[in-house]
Design goal:
50% of the residues lie in helices and 14% in strands. The protein is α/β, with parallel strands linked by helices. The longest helix is centred in the C-terminal third of the chain and has 36 residues. The protein binds 5-O-phosphono-beta-D-ribofuranose.
Length: 173
């Protein structure tokens, strides 16, 4: 977290924080300044409205919004914030997050929310990075390096598997 944030990470409850943390870690890794807020579409609607209305004016370019259950936070924010909103559906005890994902995903035409998988906060962070990389060559360079390293890690695992075979690979994992 730094001053002059360009990404907001918001969550419906502090109970979402242990999942949402992975998005913040990605932004830290790429050196992107962000803020963290707890806002609820249902429990603190006035604060949520004020946040969504004022975010562009404060320099926010992408919002990541996590919520579980009747997960309306990302959609409510997208109804007022004109730039990209990425929704993270949080896994729930009652319905496993199917409730959350449908709530985040099924937005009406005209109000998009880019929805990642259930609890997929790392991908939300990376998607925010990819959006910022469109107009920021420094972030783009870091993104290309990240993708290269990621691919290399798979290649190395494959080499190791071929060398060791199944049992030895699993023993060394
Ligand atoms: C949602 O309700 C939150 O995003 C959270 O995932 C879920 C449960 O909230 P708590 O009861 O744990 O505060 O609004």
């Amino acid at each position: 977290m730094k001053s002059n944030p360009i990404v907001s990470i918001v969550m419906g409850s502090d109970s979402d924080l242990s999942v949402v943390k992975a998005a913040a870690e990605v932004l830290d890794q790429f050196g992107v300044p962000y803020e963290l807020q707890i806002l609820s579409a249902h429990r603190s609607p006035r604060e949520t409205h004020e946040f969504a209305e004022g975010a562009v004016g404060r320099g926010i370019k992408v919002i990541i919004a996590a919520a579980g259950g009747a997960a309306h936070l990302a959609g409510v924010i997208a109804s007022e914030f004109p730039l990209p909103v990425i929704g993270i559906p949080i896994e729930t005890p009652a319905l496993g997050g199917i409730d959350s994902i449908y709530s985040v995903l099924q937005m009406p035409p005209g109000v998009p929310v880019a929805t990642v998988g259930i609890n997929a906060a790392k991908n939300a962070g990376l998607l925010a990075i990819e959006i910022l990389a469109v107009s920021n060559p420094i972030i783009l360079k870091k993104l290309l390096d990240f993708k290269k390293d990621q691919a290399q890690a798979v290649v190395e695992k494959s080499r190791k598997l071929q060398k060791l075979g199944i049992e030895n690979y699993l023993k060394q994992k």
